[in-house]
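Figure 6 in text form: structure in, sequence out.
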């Protein structure tokens, strides 16, 4: 909420994405964030925790909340919008944390997401965006990090294996598709010890694009110049048959973690 009060969304509004996906909104108040957008909230049952919001300029054909499993949908972590040419999923994937219970929960959530996505892919291409709370490889973590060890959560882990399994089922990591060897490209920095100013970060946020659409990806960007969260916004520009105001033009999506 402080981000709204301090006009923190002005830089994102200037990007004028067709769809804007927010994670960890931490509110059940459901305020009007940006004019000109339809707001779709999934806030879960616990105030001040998790929650996702998708804002869209064009009304979707359908909106689906959750994964369809009550035990996994209490925290408000996923919204799916359907358009004529594609589905777009806004996901705030659970953090495995240090407890066996949360690690097991994350495992069940990952498995349910995989099944959910495969069913959608039977009908039309899928784009998934959000905070996955996991990095893919060493290039996605600042080099001096001493926590890259076997079985370390967020790197060499079951969570990482699950992400790779999802990618192998027919997706490309949009950023790495265009920038396979770029180092220092992070989306999250600890708020301790001036990590962001040193660019000691992790890449935790992704656009996963159906492989059928890979050739249509025009740009995948990290907007590190935009502050207001411990994550930076990421953006995808992709050429699809996306109708806006009666005209077909390139579809653009942005994803930003946290609305505090």
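Output sequence:
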């Amino acid at each position: 909420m402080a981000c709204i009060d301090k006009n923190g969304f002005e830089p994102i509004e200037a990007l004028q994405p067709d769809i804007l996906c927010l994670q960890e909104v931490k509110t059940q108040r459901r305020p009007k964030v940006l004019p000109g957008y339809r707001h779709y909230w999934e806030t879960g049952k616990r105030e001040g925790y998790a929650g996702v919001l998708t804002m869209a300029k064009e009304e979707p054909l359908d909106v689906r909340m959750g994964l369809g499993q009550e035990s996994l949908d209490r925290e408000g972590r996923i919204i799916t919008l359907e358009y004529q040419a594609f589905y777009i999923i806004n996901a705030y994937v659970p953090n495995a944390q240090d407890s066996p219970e949360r690690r097991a929960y994350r495992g069940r959530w990952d498995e349910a997401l995989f099944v959910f996505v495969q069913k959608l892919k039977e009908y039309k291409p899928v784009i998934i965006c959000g905070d996955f709370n996991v990095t893919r490889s060493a290039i996605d973590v600042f080099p001096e990090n001493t926590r890259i060890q076997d079985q370390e959560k967020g790197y060499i882990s079951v969570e990482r294996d699950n992400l790779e399994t999802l990618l192998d089922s027919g997706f490309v990591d949009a950023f790495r598709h265009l920038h396979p060897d770029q180092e220092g490209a992070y989306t999250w920095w600890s708020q301790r010890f001036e990590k962001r100013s040193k660019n000691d970060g992790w890449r935790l946020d992704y656009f996963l694009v159906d492989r059928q659409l890979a050739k249509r990806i025009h740009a995948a960007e990290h907007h590190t110049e935009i502050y207001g969260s411990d994550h930076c916004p990421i953006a995808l520009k992709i050429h699809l048959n996306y109708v806006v105001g009666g005209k077909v033009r390139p579809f653009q999506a942005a994803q930003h973690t946290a609305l505090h």
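Caption detail: The longest helix spans residues 100-121.
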